[in-house]
Amino acid sequence: RMAVIFLSDEDLDVPKLVRSWIRAQPEDRQLALTEWMDEFLMRALNWLMEQTGMNEENGGGGGAAAEKSGGEKRAREGFVLQTTRTGTVRNALSHVAAAATREEFALSLCRGLGANLPPSLQADLCRQVLGWAGLSIPDPQ
User: Fold this and answer.
1) Is residue 96 within 8 Å of residue 81, measured between CB atoms?
2) What is the DSSP letter of 81?
3) Distance CA 49, CA 68 (A)
4) Residue 114 and residue 129: Cα distance in Å, rounded?
5) Nearest to residue 54, comparing CAs of 42, 43, 67, 41?
6) Which of 112, 108, 105 lies closest to 90, judged by CA?
7) pLDDT band of 67, cuts 50, 70, 90
8) What does the DSSP 8-state code read for residue 37?
9) How confident is the model at residue 131 (pLDDT cuts 50, 70, 90)?
10) If we measure between CA atoms, which residue out of 91, 85, 120 comes closest to residue 13?
């Protein structure tokens, strides 16, 4: 017999998911990955969830969300494709697996978390994460 268990996004604990993923990485990289995850991942994920409105939408994040600002609602960009917090985290983890330095980790995190975002939100995310890492983005001008 076989069964499938469906868990809601609220039932999955992101820090536990990340710790489990780190334990599956080579032992010599686990300490650095743990430090970088603690420094960047949850902060970036929280920022992203706030920007996309995923926290208010029961995990959907697809399309535009509404935000109350001084009694007004304004449209926010969401994910290009509907996804869950867990799906977003797993995508980010797949990108940061090969990072050997703090800077590579920050850039890989931008790629992983931003892969399902419209370009303007990708740019905002990268500015945030790279700013936290003390890295500057070249001026396109």
Assistant:
1) no
2) S
3) 15
4) 11
5) 67
6) 112
7) very low
8) I
9) very high
10) 85
Rounded Cα distance, 40 and 38, in Å: 6
* Phi, psi angle pair for 57, to nearest 5°: -105, 20
Two tokens, residue 26: 């080579």
Lowest-pLDDT range, 44-58, 59-73, 81-95?
Answer: 59-73
pTM: 0.76
Grouping H, G, I as helix, E, B as strand and the rest as coil, residue 117 is coil
Decide: 54 and 43 in contact? Cβ < 8 Å: no
Q: For 67, which DSSP code?
A: E
- Residue 120 to residue 52: CA distance in whole angstroms: 12
State the virtual CA torsion across 15, 112, 121, 44 in degrees, nearest 10. 30
